[in-house]
Specification:
By secondary structure, the protein is an alpha+beta fold. Helices cover about 25% and strands about 30% of the residues. The protein contains four helices and nine strands. The protein is globular.
């Protein structure tokens, strides 16, 4: 039986960082870090993308910085996309690794801070295994109805009603700013959002 790849060195991934491999079902490589270095995350994600002999289908790469007992900062370099403000499967994979390494009980709700906003995650037992639960904000930023003929040039495209969700957008903006303040207070300053 193959042992899980958890908290082990893998030089093709990074010369010094330990890594845990998780499928969500997409591939994730997760490292717990003592400080966040965005250039290092980008270099590691790029190395994974450029090493098909070791990572034949690629993988998302997440760095996890513990901020407190119940909070972490997670930043993910997604395969094919690069740095993203938030990655749901990266958050879930990172949370699973915290429990696998004994850093958080599976049922403990952990706040996951991202450049794009906060979420909470925990693991629940199901059929003898762990199932990740991710709780976060989903905000409608715009809704519109399209007339197919308008797309084909038969008439003007009406963008009226774009402010119908202004209260929700304002609430998310406040949540986003509070999240950035919490990250800055923890010494984390993601440069690319």
């Amino acid at each position: 039986m193959t042992q899980p790849f958890v908290g082990r060195p893998l030089p093709a991934f990074h010369p010094t960082r330990a890594v845990s491999a998780v499928a969500m079902p997409n591939s994730h490589l997760v490292s717990i870090v003592g400080s966040y270095d965005e250039a290092d995350l980008v270099a590691t994600g790029t190395r994974v993308a450029d090493t098909p002999g070791v990572f034949p289908i690629g993988a998302n790469v997440s760095f996890v910085l513990p901020v407190s007992d119940d909070e972490v900062f997670v930043r993910t370099f997604e395969r094919g996309a690069g740095l993203t403000p938030s990655c749901g499967s990266g958050n879930s994979a990172s949370r699973a690794v915290l429990s696998r390494l004994g850093l958080a009980d599976p049922d403990r709700r952990v706040v996951i801070r991202n450049a794009g906003g906060p979420a909470r995650s925990w693991l629940q037992e199901r059929d003898g295994g762990w199932q990740p639960v991710l709780e976060g904000n989903a905000t409608i930023v715009y809704r519109m109805e399209l007339d197919p003929s308008a797309l084909l040039g038969d008439g003007p495209l009406d963008m009226a009603g774009g402010t119908a969700y202004s209260a929700e957008i304002a609430a998310f903006d406040l949540l986003y700013k509070d999240n950035l303040k919490a990250l800055q207070a923890a010494g984390v300053s993601p440069a690319r959002i």
